[in-house]
Give the backbone structure.
Amino acid sequence: MTTLLILDSQADAYNEFVKNAHLPGLNVLLATDPSGLPEGAALAEVVLAPPGLLIGALPRLTSLRWVQSTWAGVESLLAPELPRNYLLSGVKGVFGTQMAEYTLCYMLAHERQVIQRFDSQRQGAWDHRMPGQLAGKHAVFLGLGSIGGECALRCRQFGMRTSAVTRSGAQTALVDKHFQVENLPQAVSDADYLVMSLPDTPETRHLVDGPVLDALPPHAVIINVGRGRSLDQQALLSAMKAGELAGAVLDVFEHEPLAPGDALWDCPGITITAHTSAVSFVEDIAPLFLANLGRYLAGEQPHHLVDFTRGY
Amino acid sequence: MTTLLILDSQADAYNEFVKNAHLPGLNVLLATDPSGLPEGAALAEVVLAPPGLLIGALPRLTSLRWVQSTWAGVESLLAPELPRNYLLSGVKGVFGTQMAEYTLCYMLAHERQVIQRFDSQRQGAWDHRMPGQLAGKHAVFLGLGSIGGECALRCRQFGMRTSAVTRSGAQTALVDKHFQVENLPQAVSDADYLVMSLPDTPETRHLVDGPVLDALPPHAVIINVGRGRSLDQQALLSAMKAGELAGAVLDVFEHEPLAPGDALWDCPGITITAHTSAVSFVEDIAPLFLANLGRYLAGEQPHHLVDFTRGY
């Protein structure tokens, strides 16, 4: 008998998927908050939870062997004071679609001046300014994992030119041109859009800093769907105020939620979303978990394991 | 010697393309307004102009044989009191890209609640409402010409299901399902989006009326990039006020520009753009004109001829 603890605000919805899988020898416990752990939670060998809830429960999960995170961001579990004597699976491959929709949404909204036109509508004004278009524009991808790759595919379908900046600079079929990260300023020098989808590691901290922002043309727009710390927010604010950049669409920040009163909130040209570019829909995460649980129960290694040292 | 009159606010830009084509035996006259026609305009056999400017010049264009419109909408030239003794070429095939970008832009903006989130930002609020996504949603196309077809292609690339409603209901490779126009209410009954790209003809007037709006599910959004008269605006307002429809994105109206004070301006859920879903970029129109001019000068029939009786 394996005890599974589902610790999630949507525990019931996840449990429906688990029940329908008819896995033998599984004892399922449900909780929506670490303050309300059910009796027997100490026996839980497998936990399905978002990192934020898991942290509060960790001290009591003395039988823990494997965690499937329901969220992509697992950085909070990497803090050195927390236990690392369990397997941790992240979420991979299910957020590409949402992130690509987010990226294209805000690219198109920029070209089409959606906000400005809606303001005109509110004033009852017939706003016949000329729109721009994505076709022919150049998107540079900083990071070309499953998310960057899916964004690049959509951009190509819109007739955009595409480049990628990666550690190795190795050729792929995903984009037209490839650059090593050492050549980042050169890579972005004729970008219309810079799409960031980097993990949070020491190497990526403030990778987009003042000199990189200087290298971007003044009509360029940054879209960050990766991690907040890969972009130097103070340098961004300076560049925006100096008119050296047309805009930035930020879903992630150095500290989240973004502090009230932060200068980013009302900096013209900056769009702020609340780390919602990809959310965990139960119908996306549950099948991934069940496939991974099948591997675990069969004695195999679960997929998408996080390296506590490497950080992703 | 053939005299060409370029009558357009961007006449100089068009003339650059004409000059670069090095066509022999062409006498080119330029004007930006019918009130300032150059000497010799009465000799113009070929005119490149938008309908709005052409109308004012028509009485003086006594040698006119062929007009290439720079704009898609040529209805104003079909008025019965105007001469019809010349060939009129419309613009086809160059607006699909822009219209597809417009359509996907506003679909994505709806799913992603771009306006609502931006309002949250203006209030400094961390807005973590869940976004929707296009993947899996159902788009129904009313009209499947070059514009509807290109919109349908993009929708499919986003993983949407697609249906089309046309006069014949004939099968195409462009969408998943086909309906005859008689079955319009049935076709839209499970639509998430209804994309209208119809020409303005007696048959399409108020084709989307109260009963069709009733047949749409309450979560559906209408996008009209075709002609305003194919949608009954009063019925739309009633449906919106009754909560029978989630929204409408309108680029065209029964009368344009939309009158100040019209109830559409501030009806919640209605997005108004000023007939800008596709605009005439000189770099798009000039090559089309030059190809057509080549045909005309060679004694062939120009492409995209408008039937003055049929209306398109």
About this structure: Residues 96-272 of chain B form a domain with the Rossmann fold fold (CATH 3.40.50.720).
